[in-house]
């Protein structure tokens, strides 16, 4: 009686089984090495979970698992910021930029330009410029008022000084005129006194001559009377 032997597994199935066993062995060895390295060199923190998840995700084929599409992809398919996130929230580049992807927040998209802030800055700059212009205008007006008031005070002081000088000059002129008049009156009085003195002297001479003649006539008549 011939014994029929069951056909052995095909070469492909056996190779696949060996590969799976090798992957399990590599996974356990890699996890053990990671755990030992963490205990020796890395302090306990929230980053331990990320490193462990990355180790689990990288163990098969050196790729990372995307939490959105569920595909394992090469690390180059993830951004630096996404590659540092835990596997539970890590997303590949395609899922982060796809607006139709469910719950996609486009984490790595560049923020929009702050146009309102720029407009606000422009408005603030315009307001500051307007305020500076208004302040300069007010300052110029104040300076003009101060200069006008100073000029008016100086003009008043100059006018008062000129008026005082004019009064002094007028007083001097009047004093000189009075002096001239006094001198003229004195000269006139002196002339009149001289004339009166001369007249009185002349009258005195005439009276003396007359009195002498009368005396002579009287003596002559007396002498004649005596001669008789």
Could you walk me through the main structural features you see in this protein, from its secondary elements to its overall organization?
The protein is mainly α and 228 residues long. It is built from 5 helices and 2 strands, in the order ααββααα. The protein has helices at residues 11-41, 47-58, 80-83, 93-97, 115-227, and strands at 63-65, 72-74. A two-stranded antiparallel sheet has the order 1-2. Helix 1 (11-41) packs antiparallel against helix 2. The longest helix is centred in the C-terminal third of the chain and has 113 residues, at 115-227. It is rod-shaped, with a radius of gyration of 71 Å.
Order of helices and strands: HHEEHHH
Rg, alpha carbons: 71 Å
Strand share of the residues?
under 5%
Mean pLDDT: 75
| Neighbour order of strands in the largest sheet | 1-2
The biggest beta sheet is recorded as: 2 strands, antiparallel
Determine the N-to-C terminus distance.
257 Å
Shape: rod-shaped
Poorly predicted regions: 1-11, 24-50, 102-113
Total number of β-strand segments?
2
In helices, the fraction of residues equals over 70%
């Amino acid at each position: 009686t011939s014994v029929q032997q069951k056909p052995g597994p095909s070469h492909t199935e056996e190779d696949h089984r060996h590969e799976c066993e090798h992957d399990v062995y590599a996974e356990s060895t890699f996890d053990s090495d990671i755990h030992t390295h963490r205990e020796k060199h890395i302090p306990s923190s929230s980053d331990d979970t990320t490193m462990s998840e990355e180790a689990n995700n990288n163990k098969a084929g050196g790729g990372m698992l995307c939490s959105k599409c569920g595909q394992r992809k090469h690390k180059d398919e993830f951004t630096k910021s996404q590659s540092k996130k835990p596997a539970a929230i890590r997303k590949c580049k395609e899922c982060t930029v796809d607006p139709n992807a469910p719950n996609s927040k486009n984490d790595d998209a560049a923020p929009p330009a702050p146009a309102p802030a720029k407009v606000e800055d422009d408005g603030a700059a315009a307001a500051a410029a307007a305020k500076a212009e208004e302040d300069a205008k007010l300052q110029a007006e104040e300076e003009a008022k101060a200069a006008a008031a100073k000029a008016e005070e100086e003009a008043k002081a100059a006018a008062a000084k000129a008026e005082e000088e004019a009064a002094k000059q007028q007083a001097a002129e009047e004093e000189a005129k009075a002096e001239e008049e006094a001198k003229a009156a004195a000269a006139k009085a002196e002339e009149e006194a001289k004339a009166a003195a001369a007249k009185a002297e002349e009258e005195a001479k005439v009276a003396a001559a007359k009195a002498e003649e009368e005396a002579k006539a009287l003596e002559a008549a007396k002498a004649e009377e005596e001669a008789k």
